[in-house]
Specification:
By secondary structure, the protein is an alpha+beta fold. Among the domains are: 235-254 and 523-594, conserved putative lor/sdh protein from methanococcus maripaludis s2 fold; 262-276 and 430-513, Efflux pump adaptor protein, beta barrel domain (Elongation Factor Tu (Ef-tu), domain 3, Beta Barrel); 286-421, no CATH class. It has ten helices and 29 strands. It has helices at 53-56, 78-83, 137-140, 162-167, 194-201, 247-250, 314-345, 351-377, 382-391, 573-580, and strands spanning 7-10, 13-18, 21-24, 59-60, 65-66, 143-144, 149-150, 238-242, 255-257, 259-275, 280-283, 289-294, 301-302, 307-312, 397-401, 406-411, 418-419, 426-429, 433-441, 453-458, 466-477, 483-491, 502-519, 524-525, 530-535, 540-551, 555-560, 567-569, 590-594. The strands form seven sheets. Strands 10-19-22-21-20-23 form a six-stranded antiparallel beta barrel. A four-stranded antiparallel sheet has the order 11-18-16-13, with no helix packed on it. It has a four-stranded antiparallel sheet with strand order 15-14-12-17. The longest helix is centred in the middle third of the chain and has 32 residues, at 314-345. The chain is elongated and about 125 Å long.
Amino acid sequence: MKAKPWIFFVGTVMMLSAAGYGYLRFFGDQPTSQAGGCETHSVVQCPFCSPELLESMGFCRGHGVPEAVCTRCRDDLEEAFRAEGDWCQGHGLPESHCELCNPGILERWKPKAEPVSASDPCAKHTVLSCPFCFPELLESMGFCRGHGVPEAVCTRCRDDLEEAFRTEGDWCQGHGLPESHCELCNPGTLQRWAEFESSEASSTASSPHSSEEGIEVSIQSVPRIHRQPALSCATEQSLIRLSQPDMAQKAGLDFAPVEVSKLRRTLEAPAEVKYDARRHARLGPRAPGIISEVRCDLGQEVGPGEVVAVVDSAALGTAKSALLQAEAQVQLWERNSAQEKVLLNKQLSTQREALEAETRLVESRIALQAAQQKLRNLGLTEEQIQQVQERSDTSSLLYLTAPFAGVVVELSAVVGERADENSPVLSLADTSKMWAMLDVDAAAIRHVAKGQAVLLVLDGQEDQTFGGIVTWISTQVDPRTRTIKVRAEIDNADGWLRARGFGTARIVTRDDGEAIMIPKSAVQWEGCCNVAFVRRNETEFVPRKLLLGYDAGEYYEVSRGLNGGELVVTQGSFLLKTELKKESIGAGCCDVDYLSQE
């Protein structure tokens, strides 16, 4: 192909000089539809095949290049740049973006990066292009698709924003992001920016949320009570003024103070009752044999050390005989060794014979210890082993004893049946305390901690509540249910809890802590934020953006936006909202002014 005069090369990437800055350009007839990815690079919204995206997708101020070609915000671009031969292997960037290898190469993008507005730092946050003081920047600065928020509020692209968000009380210390951006703490919180992304995408060649078949991917909205106040909303700058002092009474407005009261917050989860694994034992013989006696029954309470079954085991008789033989050998070689020492002193024996007798004595003692250990392995105590030696007992009867006090909960032992170490004959459990295994949603697990109180209600026993505490939280998510196991220890002194029973548990995540509460009738949705109207005097009302917390029946917890003691409009708050939305509630009854910014 013949080179054209307006084409020049930078590295291996062809650049188109236009309007004082370069556009990436790939020659050839390429499709402009980006719904399913371009044919050459298989990239949705490909800047090589659709160079008009360099303008329409905005500029990434965090990385100094247009958003359309920002490989740090768009992970899908790396292969496209590699295919064009434009990749710096050492620094993980396109060569045409790498300042370390090509100092000054990003200068060509500077005309694109001129400040949209607010060239001077704002007075409140001392930030250039402050999204809090100039909310219009949310639209004009474009959308950061790499991080799912408008470029104006992207703290990962704009390092200067952290202090501004901290000033606004919107910062997640644990994850280094604004709370309003933190999906780990507030799942779904980024969904509210979908309108910014979709409105920007609609101006490009194609929408990222549609396919060639016309199938649209719907975005599930976050419930209104969980939505963060919008940064672009200027509602709090408004002031609603009634035309007459008695207009509030005529309009039927009622008021209520913002209360500071105790709040208990609980988290519900399905639960299954199980035995305490530390106090649940399955008993079986440690050597094969025939069950000769069963001394317990289902439901019977037994004490620690009590015999519950007897097994006739030939292996036990053999082990006892081996112990007695080893003991006899020790006694024999003790006498021989002592005699050899006497003879050696009288020079009637040799040193070799004395050493041989001593060696045999040591070997016999080792054999005795091994025989004793074998009986321990079969379940005999030190006292029982001592009795075997004292009484020369070779009985083959093996006694199964309870390791702790409890109730027989399973019994499969039958007299005359063979049993071995792999076949438990009964189960014993201490039911004074039981475990409740809860399945807590992964999104809510951050509210759960060890030591929190748990209230358990069993299915079919809704009139009775069992209390306990959280003792363990699993470190893994169930791959099928996407829930996390939480264990609670429940007191069962009365014995009403049954293993494998199901019910509902409520974890007390907040117990009687002080909270700011507001009647639900005072909260209105004005299109982008939850608001309440604070009464300043008889004729003036100021809307406040609210961050709502726990739903407590007739009240909402207010996490941010109100202070205790303030007077808010309850009945009639909808009328003020309609006036805020520029719909009159009566000719000349009230006006909407705007508060001056300090």
